[in-house]
Amino acid sequence: MRGSGASQGSWLATRWAHLNGPGRVGGVDLARGLAVLGMFAAHLLVIDDPISWTDPSTWTAVVQGRSSILFATLAGVSIGLATGGPTPPSGRAMRSARRRLVVRAGLLGLLGLLLILTGVPVSVILPAYAILFVCAAPLTALPARALLPLAAGLALVMPFVQIVLDALPVWQTPTGADLSLVLGWHYPFTTWIVFVVAGLGVARAGVARLGVQVWMLAAGALLAIVAYGMDAATAADPQPEDSFGGAVWTARAHSSGLLEVIGSGGFALAVVGACLLLCRTPARWAVLPLRAVGAMPLTAYTLQLVVWAITAAVVLGDTGDLAGFRALAPFWPFALGTIVFATGWALAVGRGPLEWVFDRVARLATRSVEPRAE
């Protein structure tokens, strides 16, 4: 009996440590949970108006574009934490970590294509994630003092390049439309690498450090205020801009404009910093369900789209009927269901199912190519 009780205690402790042990950064999980639910809102709610901070009825527009950018920034943070945090490995250990990262990228790309085939009318972010992971792999050995200036430089340059890339004739062809889906071009890696590099940079700076957390909140808020303020002061038309200068000088969601990159990138840094600071307080227990969602973001994101496809097929007879599905008012059932599922799974089982599978496959695939010790 004593052995059984000890085993039960060890089992519970292992599950509890998955969310609260020294290997978890609670604030990062909280930010990921908010990003996942924000993407749910962007998919499932009807949001017509641009955000106006003086009009609370428009505040739900904060999820447009910003949730996915927060998601991308956190991808960079996760890559940094998975490759050593502030002290990345070197030599064989770094090569092994990079191989696992590339294998995960391949799995993400495959899963993204499968989700696209469901016909659910959303821009699936996973193909873009896959490319971003591959692009980030060579940068994992760089320190924060190189990564953060690199992110800043890319933020200032890539919006100008993006306008040229988006204007290429290939996107207007049937082949270009398919290529756009495969590349996740709604989240163009050529510009969104900015957010991943910034996230990787703060992970290398040490997201567990109080000074870094305060800096993220302050610097991110300042960037957001400046960029959104300049957009409000100079932009008259919220619709897609016709001129090169207008297309660059905008904070419109999913424009990849200069002001969106700076403003929404700053917003993402501020949110992560605020979540990290909040989780230094007893409030971290109140937000444990959101942290559980953030501990299994891939599972939560995928489950949302799979349940959406099944429900739409059964109820509407068409997985692509966006207006019809939104008319079912699915956001709260999806959000609350995801929170309950993630919390229960984390406390009863541990790691998210897709997270576990991806990690196991990546480790098995890279183990077969690791050089044997002499």
Automatic annotation (TrEMBL):
Residues 254-361 form the DUF418 domain. The chain crosses the membrane at residues 101-118, 124-142, 147-165, 185-207, 214-236, 256-278, 298-317, 329-350. Residues 24-209 form the Heparan-alpha-glucosaminide N-acetyltransferase catalytic domain. Keywords: Membrane, Transmembrane, Transmembrane helix. The keyword Transmembrane applies. Pfam families: DUF418 (PF04235), HGSNAT_cat (PF07786). This is DUF418 domain-containing protein. The lineage of its organism: Bacteria, Bacillati, Actinomycetota, Actinomycetes, Micrococcales.
